[in-house]
Amino acid sequence: MRKIYLDYSATTPVKKEVVEEMLPYFTENFGNASSIHGFGQDAKRALEKARAQIAATIAAPADTVYFTAGGSESDNWAIKGVMRANKAKGNHMITCKIEHHAVLHTCQALEKEGVEVTYLDVDSDGMISLEALKAAIRPTTVLISIMFINNEIGTMQPIQDIAQIAHESGVLFHTDAVQAYGNVKIDVSAMGIDLMSVSSHKIYGPKGVGALYIKKGIKIQNLIEGGAQEKKRRAGTENVAGIMGFAKAAQIAHDSLEAHVEKLVTLRERLLKGILESVDYVKHNGHPTLRHPGNVNVCFEFIEGEALLLSLNAKGIGGSSGSACTSGSLDPSHVLLAIGLPHEIAHGSLRLTIGDFTTEEDVDYTIEALKEVVQKLRMMSPLYDRIQGGK
Amino acid sequence: MYTETVMDHFMNPRNVGEIENADGVGEVGNVKCGDIMRIYIKVNDEKIEDIKFKTFGCGSAIAASSIATELIMGLSIEDALKVTNKQVVDALGGLPAVKIHCSVLAEQALKAAIYDYAQKTGKTYAGLEGFDPTDDHDDHHDIVEIEF
Question: How far apart are the CA of B28 and the nearest CA of chain A, in angstroms?
Fold first, then answer.
């Protein structure tokens, strides 16, 4: 059976060049980067080269990039670390309602420590309001944390404007750029980003590796205590092989960004157009233009997302949904509810994310498959026949 | 996540559709929770001669509806009213704990269809005692997990 992966925002396959780059660091160059001997120093050199490579992709000095175990750790560290280290300034922070759970649950955890959090609303495209952001800033506001690109609906926030508003009030700005990194050109200093979370496995690198960019001079508390790794800021023996893979993946993403974006946008538009033309009662979610190059998020009315995913899976297609049955809770995704979708529409959501190995044929096959599957499920749906027969 | 039987009934659901001039129609669930089941029955000589369903919901909701119609087809009304959600779960070879409510929904949809039939014909059934089709049967929070 044909197999089509359309869940690149969940994770990506590791590129062959990336695996090649990693392999020697498991066997020959296996040293602990903290060791004095040659084995350790070889690993240390590799690690610092990787750090410089990744820093170069975001136009940052090498010593501002700190390796972590992934995007979630980076988000936790940035937010908890900044809020706990700047208590003298205040105990308020601002974020928005469509953040990843790595941010939202971190904020909720901080609320139990007495931190006050403002969760900004978003509009029906998933955009925050800059006016509302300005209005939410208090004298005690320490941090604004707004994601660069939303993982579900693909909406891209006006990062530069947010940073400017933050800085005008002396507030720090963190962005979860896990979905943006490798899909958008990022220049942390030009954009005014103070802290930024990125992840390796979303850009064709290995899982379990990420980084936090911390602008020089930012006060931040450690999250992981222990040894003196990462300039005493993040303990734990460095995952050198993983980091080498991450750096290689980051470099490939950086060097081929334009071609990558162009390819993804072309396929994304083909997929979206195909869906909208062949199926009725479909709603497109997220901002129409300011969005992730490979993200298509739609809601099919009268059917449920999990049933849709299972049916697509039977045709070899891997996608994702924000329906309650796939979220592991009773409610559909917080993102779909925040953009104002009623429960019944949000239950029928489908996210298809395109990546470097997606082809035009994959997209066309998927459109055909969707048409069949949606029709089949609708024929079973008591909601659809009401519309059809006016019953 | 799902047993082969669940996937089979989801992919190839039995008795999908509607019955024209059905003797009883029952619908339970609500769109907010993401599942609605509607069951149609044709009754002849106190026997369920035909049964069909339409379901809006996840894979297990569709599979539970499908297998419930198989369990019920041909039963007398009294026997049909004895079919429990546990029987639906067992016939499916089990359901994940969070999906048990789908089997409850199937049981309730059948009862609602028989209730409709009873209302239309003025009959009473012991198995319908205490059954109120307007209850929100899809209140997931109240569903007690059954052992199997």
Answer: 11
